[in-house]
Amino acid sequence: MLDHQQPEQSPTQSLIEQLQEKKDKAQPASLPNRLPLEQVMEEVDIFQVRCDDLNPSHVSDLAKLLFNLNDLEPITVFQVGNEAYLVDGHHRIAAYKKAGKKDIPVEYLPEETTVKEAMAFSFTANNKTKLNLTLQQRMDGAWRLVRMGVKAYTKPEIKKLSNVSNGQIGFMRKVLDKLGTEAIHIECWDEARDLYNKREKPKYDENDIERFKREQAEKYAERMRKEFHDKLFKNPEVAAMALDMHFGERLVDLFRALQEYIPEEELEGPGF
Q: How far apart are CA 13 and CA 45, in angstroms?
């Protein structure tokens, strides 16, 4: 019989605690603004959001830029003792290696940054880059945080970092609970979901439903952009009136649904 008891701590959480112990010790008095490539540590279990491999086309494009430029934008590293861990710039460092460079410009997270905060930064930095995370990559990132256990990241924290819905995060936690110790060693969400589906045999696939909803929403949004351009964006009051006329008695359902996409701090501010 399989052991469905969820362990108190995942391997990732153990690694975070080990790094934090090293971080709490003395740091170097001064830090260089360039590092040899071999001195940049890559701890992908913590600081890499994507479960899949790097985009080779993007790496090649960046490497070509390096033939005409001295440098790309600095990568971001997290200093832990005498070691610098890469938290943002995985494609850039791969391009430097491909271009035959020996060192790379770096920026450091503030000295007071914790390992957990550095991990969160890796999520937000990826969400702001031009090479935006796909839905699947955001799912993998959310799953990584869920695997660390409820004590590591709350549902609102996971939602804010990964931009994955509360419902999907709840389903991930259900999968983690059902699969138990097996789940914490499965890095990619699709693999964990498929294993759960084989065991539980659900009538429908929650991940497919989430993807279908997003695809439909993107189609509707595109149609609205073509029809209204920026008119609704510039006139939110008129947009609200139009939605009231369209939704009628179901306007309150729309309001509840919209709250899922409004940051928690905004909901706590004036007007709510």
A: 10
Please tell me the distance from the alpha carbon of residue 158 to that of residue 160, in angstroms, as a whole number: 5
Which amino acid is residue 142, in one-letter code? A
Domain housing 193: 135-227
Residue 94, number of CB atoms within 10 A of its CB: 20
Residues 197 and 149 in one domain: yes
Give the residue from 109, 176, 114 showing the smallest Cα distance to 142: 176
Distance CA 176, CA 159 (A): 17
Task: Assess contact for 10 and 184: CB atoms under 8 A.
Answer: yes
Instruction: Report d(CA 100, CA 84) in Å as an integer.
Output: 21
A 10 A CB-CB count for 114 gives 15
Number of domains in the chain: 3
| 139-163 per-position pLDDT tens digit | 888 898 888 876 778 888 888 888 8
Say which residues have a Cβ less than 8 Å from residue 134's Cβ, sequence separation at least 6: none
